[in-house]
Amino acid sequence: MPEARVIPLRPDDDEPFVPPTPPPGWEDHLADAVEFLRRRVTGEYETDEFGFDPDLTDHVLLPVLRPFYEKWFRVDALGLENVPATGGGLVVANHSGTLPVDALMTTVALHDEHPAQRRLRLLGADLVFDVPFIGSLSRKLGTTLACNEDAERLLTEGELVGVFPEGFKGVGKPFSERYTLQRFGRGGFVSAALRTGVPIIPCAIVGAEEIYPMLGNAKTAARLLGLPYFPITPTFPLLGPLGLVPLPSKWLIAFGEPIETASYGPAAAEDPMLVFNLTDQVRENIQQSLYRLLMQRKGVFS
Amino acid sequence: MPPAVVLVTGVSRWLGGALAAELAADPSIGRVIGVDTVPPSPEMLRRLGRTEFVRADIRNPLIGKVIAAASVDTVVHMNISSTPAGSGGRAPMKELNVIGTMQLLAACQAAPSVRRFVLKSTTAVYGASPRDPAVFTETMQARLVPSGGFAKDSVDIEGYVRSFGRRRPDVDIAVLRFTNFIGPRIDSLLTGFLRMPVVPTAMGYDARVQLLHEDDALAVLVRATTGDWTGTVNVGGKGTLLLSQAIRRLGRVEAPLPTPALGSVGRISRRFGFVDYSPEQMRFLNFGRVVDTTVLRTEFGLVPRYTTAEALADYARTVPPVVSPRLVETTSTRLRSVLGRAGDAAAALGERLNPAPPAPGLRAVRDA
What we know:
The complex is a heterodimer of chains A (about 300) and B (about 375). Chain A has ten helices and nine strands. In chain A, about 40% of the residues lie in helices and about 10% in strands. In chain A, α2 (about 55-70) packs across α3 (about 100-110) and α6 packs parallel to α8. The chains are: A alpha/beta (about 300), B alpha/beta (about 375). Chain B: This is UDP-glucose 4-epimerase.
């Protein structure tokens, strides 16, 4: 005779009743803040060789960006399942918006909405690191210089790297050219992915184009200030600092299906034809997603 | 095979003296000859043991006679000055660094007994700029070639050593590119800088700093002198710190100044021989520099005992903090306990005003 089996009568009752833990009150938040300040004063936090400061990012920089993400731009992050939970990956996105706010919002999306809370390590132009405050804050947020050495080092360490191959051509393009991708650099990002064998995750960002609609470019002012462009928007420089407030457009950030590169082998990075083809494939993929998302979005501000 | 006769230049400074003392304590080494322009301090002289001290200027051809007479087989070149203050101005500093190295190399080239040359170089040869990759490996070159000062001298010196290597292919050459030294005894750029109670820094910038403990520097030099490794290697501790973080860990007060003001502070402090803020040091303090030490750990075969953070902590023992960490600790603990009590009181009050709902009772058995 087989042994008797115990069949639970009420399977729901297996879990004992646990009173819900009260949400952390204001005093806990304040105590955390005191503890954070203590760490900042004594220097007892970790930073990495790229200058990334996770403590500052989690307690100051991300909390500052979060209201913009949730309330101002009401970002919808789509296709997060396409971003691997562990290991290296190269997120390639379109760049727009006069100021690189899209990079910051993508960082928040991957940290707050991805189940593995992935940190996006951005690659920035050298101009970023030359500017006081902006440069050092960017490094603390995890950004490093857009060069193959840094990208490959991060990817080898299993980090998720974010790159905007259009660069200044994308972020500083006039409003009339919105959502048309510019040239994708020289394909350096593809060779970095090939050499390290990590997947390329195409990412389309809709909404950033409308935050500072760039109507004109004061080239003389730009040359005087040593900037790649000097934007003229409906509110800037007309309203002065008030013109820096971005328009509250509705954002969609969609991560597409990963394009794997490992099967080509690291030597494929030396094959310019393959690099060009992959670059075009990624660019085409992002352009198509942009069109799809634009159809999906009901209105610019809703 | 251990070297028979070692010549160490720059022996009156802490690191050179420590290396000579270490070599003199090794019975397998025949003779140790220390050279410097100034005699070592009495304390240093005691440590040097059987080291023979020759007071000579390497800018003078006399050095050739010393090398030939003693039939030196290993030369360790450490007499490279990093600050103008230490050598009486920028012009004498450059003279000592560049012309001194050229004279020494000329003497080595003429001496057939020389079979090994060790150069104490610096990671400053990589420069410091916003266009740098975050981490330099030995095969990389400066994006912006340093335009002056110690870094430029070091680039030139490495160049002369490379051409010496081409002319004397039988000589083994080891070039050690050290990061910034730190430790309780060594006198380096950063130890002087961080000893100031209020540390002026460039506003809006924060350098990444990689440090090497003096004991590890010494161990690397000893191994490079007595071993047979050849090539160029970055020498630095594991991990990095931000400059602001290092200042905080030492309990110093950071005073961020706008860059133009920092220039005049630098000129004043240089006049008093306090701390050197030359333009290239400024760039280093703005952007910092990190090097990859894989070659050191795998090929050279030495893992530094101290990480960057541990080396700084060891140095911190010798500098009394201005901001007492204990005060910070007690203040924050007290604040947190006050907050905890206030929170408890508020929670108790809330409980009294609207009590929590009772736990749900047992549910009825469902029908199948």
